[in-house]
Amino acid sequence: MSSSDRRRALGAIAALGAFALGGCGFQLRRPQKPSFERIALVGFKPKSTVGAALRRALAPDVRIVDVPAAAQVILEITEDKREKSVVASTSAAQVREFEIRVRLHFSARTPDGRELIAPTELLREEDLSYSESAALAKQFEEADLYRDMENDIVIQVMRRLAAIRL
């Protein structure tokens, strides 16, 4: 059997598997819809990337209002920050590894003060190797890691918001 015949056979098996999963009712997990229609986001910095990602995630199902009194749920952010620390360095004081973190402290309540989500901290950490010879590539890798960690935090916040029952 030649390699092209093997590729065709594997492609046919993969397609058959996809059809079988679709036929049995299998679906990827979809995000739950929140039980509220209006939310106020309080405490985000104007250029917060977590805030922007959360607004995008909420947009299809929930209207974001500026006045907390007009909201059904108030999501209050007390800390939204990126951190970076040196984990390993050489004897010549050259950095070899960083640890980067994204930290979010938040709580949710109703306009009348009923607590829906107790003050919570979400923290994501990643290690990032570093090399002076690949500094630009490492900058891009760091930006990608931060974006992935922030998206993960947004997904976790969305799950907590979806669990709220008014």
UniProtKB/TrEMBL annotation:
Q: Chief localization class?
A: membrane
Q: Where in the cell is it found?
A: Cell outer membrane
Q: How does it sit in the membrane?
A: Lipid-anchor
Gene3D superfamilies with a match to the protein in the record: Lipoprotein like domain
Q: Return the Pfam families for the record.
A: LptE
Q: Name one GO molecular function term.
A: lipopolysaccharide binding
Asked whether the UniProt record includes Lipoprotein among its keywords, one would answer yes
Q: Which UniProt keywords apply?
A: Cell outer membrane, Lipoprotein, Membrane, Palmitate, Signal
Name one process (GO BP) from the record: lipopolysaccharide transport
Q: Which InterPro entries match?
A: LPS_assembly_LptE (IPR007485)
**What GO cellular-component annotations does this UniProt entry give?**
cell outer membrane; transporter complex
**Role played:** Together with LptD, is involved in the assembly of lipopolysaccharide (LPS) at the surface of the outer membrane. Required for the proper assembly of LptD. Binds LPS and may serve as the LPS recognition site at the outer membrane.
* Record text on subunit structure and interactions: Component of the lipopolysaccharide transport and assembly complex. Interacts with LptD.
Q: Give the family per the record.
A: Belongs to the LptE lipoprotein family.
Q: What is this protein called?
A: LPS-assembly lipoprotein LptE
Species of provenance: Rubrivivax gelatinosus (Rhodocyclus gelatinosus)
Ranked from the top, the taxonomy reads: Bacteria, Pseudomonadati, Pseudomonadota, Betaproteobacteria, Burkholderiales
